[in-house]
Specification:
The chain has 316 residues and is α/β, with parallel strands linked by helices. The chain is built from eight helices and 17 strands. The radius of gyration is 19 Å and the shape is globular. The N and C termini lie far apart (61 Å).
Length: 316
């Protein structure tokens, strides 16, 4: 047997082992918790890059200090990270090392979750207490299965190409919210992770290393029969937005978990919508209109550093 063939077989065996480990992990998390609190929420933070660990520690600690937050769970999705680098998290934060780097890991229904609602967030986004509390209160008033978020996106049918396209939110209309920060029910985590019907769609997420947020929007729309809810309250510091000056933007984005960047990113996400539609045999995404506002504000709420000042990322 040639060395090239041995290397190829070793690689295939490694990938298969990772897939099996990921499947076993998912099965272990699919039992529902007995009692869930409805007055607090759990924060799920997804982490991958060792370079962002100092920021992750600070953000996890800030979440844990908010009275609304019962627990913070860090889902660390880089199996190759040395254990020694993962020390120093605040005592109130639970660290779970996932079995693989799959983006599906961000929706694991971790057994330490004891609340009916969770706030899912990237490791470079931090809302103030007003933003998080308002999103949670809006979720409490919403229909079961609804996603409540801050960053809207949309889809539309590209008639010329005969496929779905992914787009920025149209004026007053959107059909998805990004999972960089949103509030959702823990039951959606179990549906996403544990439903056999979604196995092929989860495999698309693994193959493309993208689109887990789109698939969650599919799951939520199917469950609620409605589109997501966009909220506008408080402020959100967004270190990963490329509109930050200097290293705060592109450098942070470059070490993220998902593949991003350029028109290819938007094209790939349109392909994901089309593929999810084909696999599920239906299009559950629904449009929503307007947003729930706590104070006079406009545009996306992410805060970036521009010219040495902390301002809205969409501010020129």
């Amino acid at each position: 047997m040639t060395s090239h063939r041995r290397l190829r077989l070793l690689l295939l065996a490694t990938l298969a082992a990772v897939a099996v480990a990921g499947g076993e992990e998912e099965e272990a998390f699919c039992d529902a918790a007995a009692v869930l609190r409805t007055d607090r929420l759990t924060v799920l933070l997804i982490g991958y890059s060792g370079r962002r660990l100092p920021l992750l520690r600070a953000i996890a600690g800030a979440y844990a200090a908010q009275p609304l937050v019962l627990a913070v769970v860090v889902l660390w999705s880089n199996p190759s990270t040395p254990e020694s680098l993962l020390s120093g998290l605040p005592p109130a934060v639970t660290l779970h090392r996932t079995a693989s780097s799959s983006l599906n890991s961000r929706f694991l229904p971790h057994p330490s979750i004891r609340t009916a609602a969770v706030a899912g967030a990237d490791d470079d986004v931090l809302p103030d207490a007003a933003a998080l509390s308002f999103a949670f209160a809006t979720w409490q008033r919403s229909r079961r299965g609804t996603l409540v978020g801050f960053f809207p996106r949309s889809h539309h049918l590209d008639l010329a190409r005969g496929r779905w396209a992914y787009a920025a939110a149209q004026p007053g209309r959107y059909s998805m919210v990004l999972t960089k920060l949103l509030v959702l029910g823990v039951d959606l985590l179990r549906i996403y992770t544990c439903s056999p019907e979604l196995a092929a769609a989860r495999a698309v997420v693994d193959r493309e290393r993208n689109c887990e947020d789109i698939l969650m929007n599919f799951v939520a729309a199917e469950e609620s029969g409605e589109g997501p809810v966009l909220v506008d309250a408080g402020s959100i510091r967004d270190w990963g937005d490329p509109r930050n000056d200097g290293a705060g933007g592109e450098a942070m984005k470059a070490v993220g978990l998902s593949s991003t960047g350029g028109t290819g990113h938007w094209e790939k996400r349109g392909e994901c919508i089309t593929e999810f539609h084909r696999l599920l045999g239906r299009m559950p995404l629904r449009y929503s209109y307007g947003k729930v506002v706590a104070a006079v504000a406009g545009g996306e709420q992410g805060l970036c550093i521009k010219g040495g000042r902390l301002v809205r990322c969409d501010q020129e």
